[in-house]
Design brief:
319 residues; alpha+beta; Nuclear Transport Factor 2, Chain: A; seven-stranded mixed beta sheet; 26% helix; 26% strand
Length: 319
């Protein structure tokens, strides 16, 4: 590379002359070689750390011992049913769910049926999950011991919810509350009827004992069954009944018995049978704790001449 060296002290006009004169007398200066390692300043890397992801907060624990807690439980229950959270639902509800639902008024002698909640997702199909939840002021709660009973309106009818209040609570029962049926005079002569049953589930082999106690007590005190048959005769049609009987005894407590509909049945039969059979069970079975589920049939045979070909037939399989 050739360069022309010009003194820095030259004036501007002299600089131009010197530049021209220098054209033929340039000196050769070897180029300066800069190592590659020094060609660029050192690279500075900036490491940006990602912001930590927010930790999801656990849901607020449930407590069904007051009306606000029951409302929160039902809201969470419906949310979990909507997404079919089977694990949560199984932990917070007894399935199949026991209880009864309103079918129709039937002239004051109300007909009821089973809730038909066999699995957790079935809750999402019920009206209390499709409609706005009642306010806490509209829920009455009775919390005594391990059991909590809440009463609120479902489908316009007062409904009784029973919870096991241990932990966050577990829904055990959903039953419509019905008024007493009008009284009826039972005639001396009734159409043919019979009682049959089958053990559905048992612990400690108590199923046979409960069956014997129930059938013997109903034979000795048949007023409830006879009244049911009389009501069916008065209505002009005949319908047999299937009842889901749940008998249990806890350690240190008296035995109890509940009666629920398995098929559509008159609520008056349930209200009559439950205190009668519960008292008989408490008197007859003491000591060892047990649980028994029993299907009780009140059967009334129907002749072919009693059924018109045009009559609708409704069949509902027993639970």
């Amino acid at each position: 590379m050739r360069v022309c060296l010009i003194p820095a002290t030259l004036a501007k006009s002299s600089f131009l002359v010197a530049l021209v004169a220098c054209a033929g007398h340039a000196q050769t200066i070897p180029p300066r070689i800069i190592p590659a390692s020094a060609a660029l300043p050192p690279r500075v890397e900036t490491i940006l750390e990602a912001a930590p992801l927010p930790v999801p907060q656990p849901p607020v624990p449930l407590n069904v011992r007051d009306s606000a807690g029951v409302r929160s439980f039902l809201t969470r229950l419906c949310e979990r049913a909507t997404v079919n959270d089977s694990a949560w639902l199984a932990a917070h509800a007894q399935l199949p769910l026991l209880g009864s639902t309103w079918v129709n008024d039937n002239g004051g002698d109300v007909l009821v049926g089973a809730p038909l909640i066999e699995k957790g997702a079935d809750f999402g199909l019920r009206s209390f999950c499709k409609e706005p939840q009642p306010s806490a002021d509209d829920i009455r709660v009775n919390a005594e011991g391990a059991a909590v009973i809440a009463v609120l309106e479902v489908d316009g009818h007062p409904t009784r919810l029973v919870f096991d209040a241990s932990g966050e609570g577990r829904l055990l029962e959903l039953s419509v509350v019905v008024p007493d049926a009008p009284p009826i005079t039972t005639p001396k002569t009734l159409r043919s009827h019979e009682l049959r049953g089958a053990v559905l589930r048992e612990t400690e082999h108590f199923g046979a004992l409960v069956e014997i106690l129930v059938l013997n007590d109903l034979k000795q005190h048949p007023a409830c069954v006879r009244s049911y048959v009389a009501r069916e005769m008065k209505a002009g049609h005949v319908a047999s009944a299937a009842l889901h009987v749940v008998a249990k005894k806890r350690d240190g407590e008296a035995a109890t018995l509940r009666v629920f509909p398995s098929t559509v049945v008159r609520a008056s039969l349930l209200r009559c049978l439950e205190p009668q059979l519960s008292n008989a069970l408490a008197m007859g079975l003491r000591g060892t704790p047990f649980e028994v589920e029993y299907l009780l049939h009140v059967l009334m045979p129907v002749g072919k001449d009693e059924v018109s070909p045009s009559d609708p037939v409704i069949m509902m399989g027993p639970r």
